[in-house]
Amino acid sequence: MGRVTRSSTKKAGAAAAPPAKKTTAAKKKPEKKAKSAAVAKDSSDNDATAESSSNKTVTIEAASSEAAFKTRANKIQKAVGKKASVVINAEKPGRGNFVVRVSGRDEPIIELLAMKRPFPALKALDMDEVSSNVIEALGE
To answer: For residue 49, what are the contacts with CB-CB under 8 A and spacing of at least 6?
Structure first.
């Protein structure tokens, strides 16, 4: 027997009918894009530009915990443009790290490691100066 409610018992002589079940459509979750496929696509695009620009590569390790790292990495990528290929986070970066390296150089252009929030050293950077240092390093 189904569920008995007050309204069904008030009806004289009516049999208690179970309430109709609601049918809910299964919600489809949006498919996640595979990061590895996106990285492979980016690296293949970068390989094509790297061959045309004397195989110079700028590697940026920007912590993914905060948007400040991503915006600064994108500023460097825009400044470099077609002069070299830019790879952002080829490997998983450390927490609070921001490192910019140019292939062919032993030491990084800038290296900020294990910064604590609110990342004062990162926010104090003059990105125009950093970008010009990267372009200068590419010219060597």
So the answer is: 82, 84, 85
